[in-house]
Amino acid sequence: QVQLVESGGGLVQAGGSLRLSCAASGRTFRSYAMGWFRQAPGKERELVAAIRWSGASTYYSDSLKGRFTVSRDKAKNTVYLQMNSLKPEDTAVYYCAADPYPITIGTTPDYWGQGTQVTVSS
Fold first, then answer.
1. What is the bridge-based pairing of β-strands 78-83 and 68-73?
2. 20 to 30 A from 39, CA-CA: which of 20, 77, 81, 111?
């Protein structure tokens, strides 16, 4: 079993930054891909960013490139999402997810965290 726990969400003004963390525990993650998704009220869940656990490759939503950065710390079994220049439209619940296979658009990972709220005020 895999457990994912997100943290770091909160309220921030437009233009500000937040760093989300996802602490993973349970089975080994050496070959797992990790992803960050978000879901805003009334909207479908969307993939924000993904990273191989090795860190060898990353994926970003085209609309978020340059503002968001995904990274991982193997020693801490933790994946991060650094979010800069936040906009009100970034307001959503952000979820961490893990899967043995690469996470891309259309993927539904096997494991999910409980989500963390990010609210960006204008």
1. antiparallel
2. 77
Strands 46-52 and 58-60: antiparallel
Q: Is 27 helix (H, G, I), strand (E, B) or coil?
A: coil
Per-residue confidence (pLDDT) for residue 28, from 0 to 100? 62
Of 76, 100, 62, 92, nearest to 5 by C-alpha is 76
Cα three-residue angle 43-49-54, rounded to 5 degrees: 150
Give the per-residue pLDDT at 69.
Answer: 94
Q: Which of 59, 42, 43, 48 is CA-nearest to residue 20?
A: 48
Residue with tokens 């619940």: 93
Task: Give yes or no for residue 27 having a pLDDT over 90.
Answer: no
> Six-digit token pair at 75?
């020693």
